[in-house]
Write a structure and sequence with these properties.
The protein is of the alpha+beta class. The chain has two helices and six strands, in the order βαββββαβ.
Length: 108
């Protein structure tokens, strides 16, 4: 991991790909001051689908991939890099991929 000097932030949006958004992650977002919302809708087969969405700071709400799986993409603003680092360190084994260059495995 590359450490940034105090007060410095990255200048690009950080995205984290998850296989599934689980209850521990939802609880983590609530504990760190993130936003959590529930969305219920009916799919094309008439089934009720309940989804939880999370966001932090100025980042966009997470979104689910439309390929029939439970994959989720989290969005963090560059100024929320420390929070994204905490998320990566907490749930490292459940993360499929990310674009956070300062937190690459070869730098850890």
């Amino acid at each position: 991991m590359i450490t940034l000097p105090p007060g410095c932030t990255v200048n690009y949006p950080i995205t984290i790909e998850l296989e599934k958004l689980n209850d521990n992650m939802i609880q983590w977002f609530q504990e760190v001051g993130g936003n959590v919302k529930h969305d219920d809708y009916w799919d094309y087969r008439g089934r009720l689908v309940k989804r939880l969405y999370v966001s932090y700071g100025k980042g966009k709400w997470c979104h689910y991939h439309q390929n029939g799986t439970e994959q989720v993409r989290l969005h963090f603003n560059g100024t929320d890099g420390p929070v994204a680092t905490m998320f990566l360190m907490t749930f490292l084994d459940q993360i499929a991929s990310h674009n956070f260059r300062e937190f690459q495995k070869e730098n850890v």
